[in-house]
Amino acid sequence: MSTMAMNNDAIRTVIFDFGGVLRRTVTRAPRRELEQRLGLEPDGASEAVFGSPRWDDVQLGRINITEFWADVGRRLGLDAGESDEFREAFWSGDRLDEDLVALIRHLRDAGYRTALLSNAPAGLRLLLDELGIADAFDVTVISGCEGLMKPDPAIFELALARLGARADEAVFVDDFRVNVAAARQVGLHAARFRGLAPLRKQLRELGVRVPDPALEPLPDIRAIIFDWGGVVEELTGDAHLAEWEQRLALESGMLARVLWGQVWRQLSVGAISEDEYAARVAERLGLPDWEAGRRFMAEFYAGDRFYQPVAAAIRALRGRYRLALLSNAPPGQAERVREQFGFDIHAEFDLYINSALVGLRKPDPAIFYLTLERLGVEPGQAVLVDDMVYNVDAARELGIHTVQFVDPATSLAELESLLGLEHGLAGLTD
Length: 430
What we know:
Layout: E1 13-16, E2 23-25, H1 29-38, H2 44-50, H3 55-59, H4 65-76, H5 80-91, E3 94-96, H6 98-109, E4 113-118, H7 124-131, E5 139-142, H8 143-146, H9 153-163, E6 170-174, H10 177-186, E7 189-192, H11 196-205, E8 223-226, H12 238-247, H13 254-260, H14 262-268, H15 274-285, H16 290-300, H17 308-317, E9 322-327, H18 333-341, H19 345-348, E10 351-354, H20 355-358, H21 365-375, E11 382-386, H22 389-397, E12 401-404, H23 408-419
């Protein structure tokens, strides 16, 4: 039976962002190759483009796209031909989310008005035609054509005017927190995009008629790879972050950057110790020392967020499939989990790969290949259960089947369907 929500007639329009939502970077290998070839720091290719002083100019239509890329090339010391090669390689890891496009077309066919609202150069209009998706939208509003950019309220109001819609009857979907907040200030309903599976749930909660995904059993699955944070242990939510930002007098979004930004990435590949991580977090938050940083994190992460249904599912699957835990985590994760939740990672899984212990982290393809090799399976014989869209995207690019985790009820049911378990996971223990 379908789980689609009852229709809320108040919602008549759904507005989507493009970059980071409809089209996403699913492999960063081309950009890493550019960085190595040009002697740039990690993420230097992205910084050269999105951190360019002319990026806002091209998004506001003050310069054209040819002028923008010529400027990027000059700053990198490239000639015209090399600049063209850089541009082509830079975007070559991006992919269109065909499943999301299908959902948008379904919504339009079901009577909803659909729109695209994007901060992008004016050339996005031509790209939409080339991708064959321009007809999925009733209205297209691109910053480079309008001289307005999100989060400016005026561009949301312009989109609503062209749609002939009121703010309170429209939903806006974007991956940037600041744009979501701005949309809400205008009166729009808004959902921060974290992947299609979470989006389905968010739209249903707003009363939008969203169909269930079509799932067919996969006949050759031999292994299931679980993430930890966000799958077995619930992550802290936006409300919790906002509460702590208020307590620490931080600007919106800063705490997430401090806890899970560049310093976290260094910790999660073993480049710094947990004490050094705590010291650097403390410094960014204005706390006196690493011990204060440790105390803050202990309080911030306090609480029982252990998903017992997921743990029960892991135990039901054990012995029938090869089970792995693949986690971006500090080196002491297993000990912390055993102490906090009484869950023995080494006993519950056939394989445990901790990013800090192997010096690799998701979504790097190398850590997925390492996991598959140690499990003794091919990509098409494995399912990854992970909450982060960029990890799911990277795994799919390699041919691994995926379940993007939303909550235990939704995602375990999807896993049951993919495994062809007629009586569900509970039936395995009968």
